[in-house]
Amino acid sequence: MASSIEKFGNGQRSSHSPVYADQIEPAPSFAQDSTFRILVGIPAYNEEVAIGSVILRSSKYSDKTVVVDDCSRDSTVEVVKLAGADVICHEVNQGKGAGIRNIFYYAKKENFDILVLLDGDGQHNPDEIPLLIEPIRNGKADIVIGSRFIVKGMHNVPKYRRVGQEVLTIATNLASGYNITDSQSGFRAFSKNTFDCFSFQQNGMAIESEMLIEAARANLRISEVPVNIRYDVDCSTFNPVKHGFSVLNPIFKLIVQRNPLLFFGIPGVILFLMGMAFMFMVLDTFNATRHIETIYVMAFLVCSLTGLLGLFNAFALIFIRDVRSKPSAVR
């Protein structure tokens, strides 16, 4: 399956200047455009410091803002209500993926045409929302990702983070078949026709990669536009190494689940055939010497049984993949 991805905002060549949101005329107000109903969705956890301004600035470009509070321990919910956004509260902490799942459910139930996701910590610039949704409005994309890395030298990502993000992006691209430059960006826009394309199996931070993998399976068109990210407001408490492995491990599992024949089926067949070869060696030796070579017998048992186990896992994962391919109802 050939996946479709485009770069917008001069993102294909680093010698071009990036397109910034302040170069875009927001008129006639996006929020007043009757052609598209736009929802801004914000998954939040302990974001009382910045989320109020994020909501107010986002409201210039949207018809409504909804925040999913993941059982914050601060005053996030109170600030969200004061800023005029709708809020959905988790009774227990469930993770970012669970928050995004409920945002999609809200967007579908309220019949919005475009959903914009961004973080509540102030790292994403709401004034870049027009740039993000333009490819969808023009019918050129189903999903648009705000990328920090389309234009070389544009980003100010700390080097230790850049290395980890590059590893995760390579893994995601291998699993999806896309050529994304910033697979971990949480600043994204989705057209209405994507709302039923995701199963939301990942509750944690691997949700961004899972969505790209499932977008590829649905043959959705993905575009990227250059955006700016602030790191002076980064309040993350995650250890970057621990966080990287917590995302990479689910990505690897997704790769295996999406390609069970490659990881289990083909090795299983090879091992089973090797086991058969050792069996014939046992029989041949016995016919010639009337003596059973124990080492050949052990090799036959290990290879044939391991091969059968690999084949069983491959078919089991294919069955599980087919069951999960049907998007589950979001609660």
TrEMBL record:
Keywords: Membrane, Transmembrane, Transmembrane helix. InterPro entries: Glyco_trans_2-like, Glycosyltransferase_2, Nucleotide-diphossugar_trans. It holds the Pfam family Glycos_transf_2. Residues 40-196 form the Glycosyltransferase 2-like domain. Signal peptide: none annotated. The chain crosses the membrane at residues 261-283, 295-320. It comes from the Archaea. CDD domains: DPM_DPG-synthase_like. PANTHER family: RFBJ PROTEIN (PTHR48090:SF7), UNDECAPRENYL-PHOSPHATE 4-DEOXY-4-FORMAMIDO-L-ARABINOSE TRANSFERASE-RELATED (PTHR48090). This is Dolichyl-phosphate mannose synthase.
